[in-house]
Design brief:
about 475 residues; alpha/beta; TIM Barrel; CBS-domain; 2 domains; three-stranded mixed β-sheet; 17 helices; about 15% strand; globular
Length: about 475
């Protein structure tokens, strides 16, 4: 990446402060752009799109991890989840099908009330009805409209359904669904037992995205740990579970305890990438690399739930932080993840142009069906989920649940971050896959403007300019008219 001007700015820059200049391009279509990691220059995580779900309790869980890995990204399980729960989630994700979605299942004797409690957990609002392990019907939210809640599912389910063979290619499955005018269908094995479910849109996505899978063909997943306690013991357990990436995470990543933790993990020769952070400058990057980190997490204060800058005055505008840290890591053959501050697809593209190998997304993904929280309905009828910062009182309470009442109260006096914020579901993009589509579409188009066929080439070719607030405002659409 290079700046348009030799003296781009006297101050540090956020994503809103910059723009990318189009260049001569021989890339004819966004479908000609490969978002997968370069075999020689990749960060070792095995992703096929440059997106990482942040290790936030309100964002990253089993359903999110399954869905994002199926589309090529990776999710990081938070450090405050008990290890036995992490083991259960990792095992569950590793058993998911790389093409077919894990459906909600009900029995014929279950009630409409049971169905209505579960259907909001899927963007397509449908469940498969099973009898002896075999699909006998499909029930949707529309089937439950105006029906007594004690009615049995068997009385309202749709039996006029098609089933897909588990060996079908996505294009063939799409053609079957289109020709029979079905929105979705269960997939079954040779014995007729349920394997998963596939929608028309899911079939289309499977022709565009490549799942992020390990050497055994299982979906990838990462896990985070803190810098306190038995770091080595926790890492050994995580490696036994089969996690594909270790994230050593603390708000201030350039501290002695972090360096000691990274050194301890590196001494175990984990065989998977070690991510450490967060930092915002070259000195922190170099110290963490020397301690043994493969990837440095960059970002202090840009997150939507983070109050660090307002509480402490500490942090740095994210674009400049990523540029400096990526340059420092690149000199040692290492990588950085841009963590926080993205609110539009353009921000993801700019972070990648700045040199990040991946972009971490947290709060933006909270307002989706796949995030772990319960779905709430506001007084004006809008569905939402609650998000909270990982240094907030709410997160601290979760993390210290096994401490004594005195220690919990003592730690609760000091917190940073928002404990509860409503993240409304976009009615046009209620699922995380909808947001992934938007982001990847934007990044692919950005690559075509730069004349880049892949991410490594994109970073090399990107030309960045600095703009005024009016310049940023000029680029915003006016959906409501003048």
């Amino acid at each position: 990446m290079r700046f348009l001007s030799d003296t781009p700015s006297p101050y540090d820059l956020t994503y809103d402060d910059v723009f990318m200049v189009p260049r001569r391009s021989g890339v004819a279509s966004r479908y000609d752009v490969d978002l997968a990691q370069h075999p020689d220059r990749g960060d070792g995580t095995g992703t096929t799109i440059p997106l990482v779900v942040a290790n936030m309790t309100a964002v990253s869980g089993r359903r999110m991890a399954e869905t994002v890995a199926r589309r090529g990204g990776i999710s990081v399980l938070p450090q405050d989840i008990p290890l036995d729960v992490v083991e259960d989630v990792v095992s569950w994700v590793k058993r998911r099908h790389p093409v077919f979605e894990t459906p909600i299942t009900l029995g014929p004797q279950d009630t409409v009330s049971d169905a209505l409690a579960l259907l909001p957990k899927r963007a397509h609002r449908a469940a498969v009805v099973l009898q002896d392990g075999k699909p006998v019907g499909v029930i949707t939210a529309a089937d439950c409209t105006g029906v007594d809640r004690f009615t049995q599912v068997a009385d309202v389910m749709t039996t006029d359904m098609v089933t897909l063979k588990h060996t079908m290619e996505p294009r063939e499955a799409f053609d079957v669904l289109a020709s029979t005018r079905h929105r979705l269908a269960p997939a079954v094995d040779d014995d007729g037992e349920l394997v998963g479910i596939l929608t028309r849109t899911g079939a289309l996505r499977s022709t565009i995205y490549t799942p992020a899978v390990d050497r055994q063909g299982r979906l990838r997943i990462a896990a985070a740990i803190g810098v306190n306690g038995d770091v080595g013991g926790k890492v050994k357990r995580l490696l036994t579970m089969g996690v594909d990436c270790l994230v050593i995470d603390t708000a201030h990543g350039h501290q002695e305890r972090m360096l000691e933790a990274v050194t301890a993990v590196r001494s175990l020769e984990p065989g998977v990438p070690i991510v450490a952070g967060n930092v915002v400058g070259a000195d922190g990057v170099l110290d963490l690399i020397e301690a043994g980190a493969d990837i440095i997490k960059v970002g202090v204060g840009p997150g939507a739930m983070c109050t660090t800058r307002m509480m402490t005055g500490v942090g740095r505008p994210q674009f400049s932080a990523v540029v400096e840290c990526a340059d420092a890591a690149r000199g040692h053959g290492k990588h950085v993840w841009a963590d926080g501050g993205v609110r539009h697809p353009r921000d993801v593209a700019l972070a990648l142009a700045a040199g990040a190998s991946q972009v971490m997304i947290g709060s933006w993904f909270t307002g989706t069906h796949e995030s772990p929280g319960d779905l709430h309905i506001s007084t004006d009828g809008r569905p939402y989920k609650e998000s909270f910062g990982m240094a907030s009182a709410r997160a601290v309470a979760n993390r210290t649940s096994t401490d004594s009442p005195f220690e919990r109260a003592r730690k609760g006096l000091y917190e940073e971050g928002i404990s509860s914020s409503r993240m409304y579901l976009d009615p046009d993009r209620p699922g995380v896959e909808d947001l992934v589509d938007d982001i990847c579409s934007g990044v692919r188009s950005a690559c075509t403007y730069a004349g880049a066929h892949g991410l490594a080439e994109f970073t090399d070719r990107a030309v960045i300019g600095v703009q005024s607030p009016a310049g940023f405002a000029e680029g915003r659409p006016l959906p409501g008219g003048w």
